[in-house]
Specification:
The complex is a heterodimer of chains A (75) and B (168).
Chain A lengths: L3 E5 L6 H10 L7 E6 L4 H12 L2 E8 L2 E7 L3
Parallel strand pairs in A: 1-2
Antiparallel strand pairs in A: 2-4, 3-4
Chain B lengths: L12 E6 L4 H16 L3 E6 L25 E3 L2 E3 L3 H4 L4 H15 L5 H10 L3 E5 H6 L11 E4 L1 H9 L3 E4 L1
Parallel strand pairs in B: 1-2, 1-7, 2-5, 5-6
Antiparallel strand pairs in B: 3-4
The chains are: A alpha+beta (75), B alpha/beta (168).
């Protein structure tokens, strides 16, 4: 179970990333943030975001048009 | 405070020269700027010529189909471009702008106002070109508060030290 969940469904680039960055501030170091998105571009974008910021992308999954990302706040 | 603003000496830096003030051209600089800031980049945006109107308090951005054959709008189940002879008629730009704004809302794309707010929140440095302010007789009180004024040398000082410099 993630420490926090961000529902970014229906939002388009770059809003899921901007909201995730903002929400990560409220996640304690080492804690996890779950992001739900419907933007297909967010799959590549969250991988790039995590790689660049040093946060760990624990999980990236798709289920029926909804993408789910689990990010560990390590950046 | 943003990561970059917290004074990490290793933070990457980016500058963007923003020269265009139409609704469509306003997106690339604000999307890249805000996203870079979210990724820990220290961003400076320099607004000059028509781009300067993007720093006005009240935005009324328009898009024009005139001379833009690549602008194909979804219409009647297909994508249609607009002949210049139609695009030049009074009211067509306003109609196309309204259509674009409706599409933006429907597709969950951020408004420029929203992205500009995000830019301010993430402490992107917004520089208004002093020369353009004078040239177009823009008043400081009509512009947003979170800007600083500067010229080419102000920009160059930042650009010379930056990892990425874009002209849009």
């Amino acid at each position: 179970m993630a420490d926090k969940t961000l529902d970014a469904k229906g939002l388009n680039c770059p809003l899921p990333i901007l909201r995730a960055k903002k929400t990560l501030k409220d996640v304690p170091a080492g804690g996890t943030l779950e992001v739900l998105s419907t933007d297909p571009g967010s799959v590549a974008d969250f991988a790039a975001f995590c790689k660049t910021t040093g946060n760990e992308l624990v999980e990236s999954a798709a289920d029926g048009g909804v993408y789910r990302f689990l990010i560990r706040h390590t950046g | 405070m943003s990561d970059a603003a917290m004074g990490s000496a290793n933070a990457k830096t980016m500058t963007i020269i923003v020269t265009k003030g139409t609704l469509d051209w306003a997106y690339p600089p604000f999307i890249l700027g805000t996203t870079a800031a979210a990724m820990g980049v220290d961003v400076t945006m320099f607004f000059t010529f028509y781009g300067l109107s993007l720093l006005k308090k009240k935005l009324d951005l328009q898009v024009s189909a005139l001379g833009n054959p690549a602008m194909k709008m979804p219409m009647m189940g297909m994508h249609m471009g607009m002949p210049n002879i139609v695009a030049m008629l009074p009211g067509v730009d306003a109609g196309a702008s309204l259509m674009m704004k409706n599409m933006i809302k429907k597709k969950g794309v951020a408004s420029i106002e929203e992205l500009r707010e995000a830019a301010i929140e993430s402490e992107i440095k917004l520089i208004a070109c002093q020369m353009t302010m004078d040239l177009f007789e823009f008043k400081t009180e009509d512009m947003i508060d979170n800007l600083s004024l500067g010229g080419a040398a102000t920009y160059m000082e930042k650009a010379l030290k930056s990892d990425i410099n874009l002209f849009i």
